[in-house]
Specification:
Structural class of chain C: mainly alpha
Number of domains of chain C: 2
CATH class of the largest domain in chain C: Mainly Alpha
Number of helices of chain C: 11
Shape of chain C: globular
CATH topology of the largest domain in chain C: Cytochrome Bc1 Complex, Chain C
Oligomer: heterotrimer
Structural class of chain B: mainly alpha
Order of helices and strands of chain C: HHEHHHHHHHHH
Distance between the termini of chain C: 38 Å
Shape of chain B: extended
Radius of gyration of chain B: 27 Å
Chains: A alpha+beta (164), B mainly alpha (176), C mainly alpha (261)
Helix content of chain B: 40-55%
Number of strands of chain C: 1
CATH architecture of the largest domain in chain C: Up-down Bundle
């Protein structure tokens, strides 16, 4: 520091250098932020807002089309709809292991791919599956049909009560 | 053909205008000057290296063509999202992973593979000791080699199990 | 060197002989505009120039150590990987002419390759087996490099590049696996992407972005197609360029300081 007072010439040079450093740092920061923002935008761009293939909300028919105590497999929606008394529930048939479709039976569910077995509630009884099958929220659509929202996972044994 | 090539170097590669002050002046038929240790025996890349590379290319193309002529690539029924096959298998190089996922979902699918990939990436920074470059199974590198071979063989065995020894319901089967 | 003393056809010759002269000189002039060396270079000087002056050859140094040429040094695995990639690019481009990345059409196109396309079966076979071979050879190359200690300083970064190339090879093969849209392809991708879904926090998002949907369907097929034919091959080509360039910059193939063998 003392150098600068003694030698104004050098002080000027140092000042010049630090100004250049400052500009370089600012440029780097602006460049970095821009690059990061563009990366983020690209990622968001790659994330579709709607999906063409499988709608998350599906209507599965009027409640009275199910008989009490029954359950119906809807393979194209990969769910089973279960009716107990006047209560309705929907359970995923996507195996939590590696995404195969499980087959429903009276005693539960069985995965044909890697042998995972689930009970009626969808809890794992055996095989490599890491967690139980999802239960989805069921609601009543304005037109009187049952609607299953596959984006909303609910606790097991959550039923929707409908006056049929 | 010869006349053009017999022109001197500076004429065929005019340098004056571009201001280039260096260039390949001549080569000598002798051992390379020893920079660090001993002189190396080297030969002209043309043709020694290129002939070998071309030969290898021809061999690769020939072998693959023969395989392609005699073995048909598999093609099963059209994809059907409603009927999973039993067992459903990932491509063979992921069957080691799939096998591990069968034991523990997170550690088999993500944890261990992530650690392995990280270890692989960092291998040269972890192994700092000098020596053994360019020599097969160098005696000073027994431990790193042993670790590497163990991990690789483990993954290979898991892959083979997943590929050949897993049948319906992912149950252990004997392929013969 | 002796060449310096030979009298040359100077540039002053240009324009002599009128049209006939121009036409007569043309083949030679065209050749020289492309190559700076004669078809079969004779002297060491010319051979070195042949390497240095050719875009495709100059990734080599003018001289190669005898050690590097021995088969047992490398087993040729890196080169074989490159050659398989070249075969894959060529056969892949041919297949692209007949392929449609849509769930309705993809499988039919596979059948068409068998019946309606000359050499279609052969091309598909070649592409598929080369892809499997490339995955295997790339990993064999990795084993070779490690066991010969060729990943150590100063070649650390090239090892990292190589590891990235290996992962990219896996991704390329994986994205291509879905394209035939048969049962094997479909469920392999269902199972394979389900493994990606296990990643903590980002797993589900990663899977969703990769598939463009919650399940493997038309969007996934389109995404895998674009990744397979444009994005990954381009990145891999750049990576291969970097990998090769680094070999030279890091001093050629790894070799012991002293003659230990």
């Amino acid at each position: 520091m003392g150098d600068h007072e003694l030698n104004p010439e050098r002080a000027k040079k140092t000042e010049e250098r630090s100004r250049r450093n400052f500009i370089a740092i600012i440029t780097a920061v602006v460049f970095g932020v821009t690059a990061a923002a563009m990366g983020l935008f690209n990622l968001i761009f790659m994330r579709p807002r709607v999906t063409y293939g499988s709608p998350a909300k599906v209507r599965v028919g009027r409640p009275d089309s199910y008989s009490p105590g029954s359950q119906l497999e809807l393979p194209e929606n990969r769910i089973v709809v279960r009716r107990q008394g006047d209560k309705f529930a929907a359970i995923s048939t996507v195996c939590t292991h590696l995404g195969c479709t499980v087959n429903a039976s009276d005693i539960g569910f069985a995965c044909p791919c890697h042998g995972s077995v689930y009970d009626v509630r969808g809890d794992v009884m055996g095989g490599p599956a890491p967690k139980s099958l999802s239960w989805f929220r069921v609601s009543l659509a304005p037109n009187g049909e049952l609607e299953v929202d596959k984006n909303q996972v609910v606790d097991p044994d959550t039923y929707l009560e409908v006056k049929v | 053909m010869s006349d053009e090539f017999d022109r001197p170097e500076h004429d065929r590669f005019p340098s004056g205008s571009s201001g280039k002050t260096y260039g390949l002046m001549c080569t000598v038929d002798a051992d390379a000057p020893a920079v660090e240790a001993k002189p190396e025996k080297s030969v002209q890349s043309w043709p020694a290296a290129f002939i070998r590379e071309l030969l290898l290319f021809i061999v690769v193309v020939l072998v693959l063509s023969l395989i392609a002529l005699y073995f048909d690539a598999p093609l099963e029924e059209p994809a059907n999202a409603l009927h999973p096959p039993n067992p459903a298998k990932a491509p063979w190089y992921f069957l080691g992973l799939q096998e591990m996922v069968g034991y523990d979902a997170f550690w088999g699918g993500i944890g261990i593979p992530g650690i392995l990939a990280g270890l692989a990436m960092l291998a040269p920074y972890l192994e700092r000791k000098k020596g053994g470059e360019g020599v097969w199974f160098h005696s000073s590198r027994i431990l790193p080699n042993l670790i590497f071979i163990t991990l690789f063989v483990t993954l290979g065995v898991l892959t083979v199990i997943g590929t050949l020894f897993r049948g319906q319901n992912w149950a252990f089967i004997v392929p013969w | 060197m002796s060449v310096d003393k030979v009298k040359l056809p100077a540039d002053a010759d240009a324009g002599k002989g009128g049209l006939i002269g121009t036409l007569k000189a043309m083949p030679k002039r065209v050749y020289h505009s492309v190559f700076r060396f004669r078809p079969l270079p004779k002297t060491h000087m010319e051979r070195s120039q042949a390497v240095a002056a050719n875009f495709f050859l100059h990734i080599h140094s003018a001289k190669t150590t005898e050690r590097a040429l021995k088969f047992r040094t490398t087993l040729g695995l890196g080169l074989i990987s490159l050659y398989l990639f070249i075969i894959l690019v060529v056969s892949g481009v041919f297949l692209m002419f007949y392929y449609v990345p849509s769930p309705d059409a993809a499988y039919d196109r596979m059948l068409d390759l068998r019946g309606a396309v000359f050499f279609g079966t052969f091309l598909r076979n070649l592409h598929r087996w080369s892809a499997h071979a490339m995955v295997a050879v790339v990993f064999a190359h990795m084993v070779r490099v490690f066991l010969t200690g060729a990943h150590k300083a100063p070649r650390e970064f090239n090892w990292v590049v190589g590891t990235a190339l290996a992962l990219m090879t896996l991704l390329l093969s994986f994205t291509g696996y879905l394209l035939p849209w048969d049962q094997l392809a479909y469920w392999a991708i269902v199972v394979g992407t389900a493994i990606a879904g296990y990643a903590p926090v980002i797993g589900e998002d990663l899977r969703f972005i990769l598939l463009g949907d919650y399940t493997v369907g038309g969007e996934a097929l389109l995404r895998f197609y674009v990744l397979h034919v444009v994005v990954l091959p381009t990145v891999l080509t750049l990576g291969i360029g970097l990998h090769f360039w680094r070999i030279r910059k890091d001093g050629g193939l790894a070799r012991p300081d002293t003659d230990e063998e």
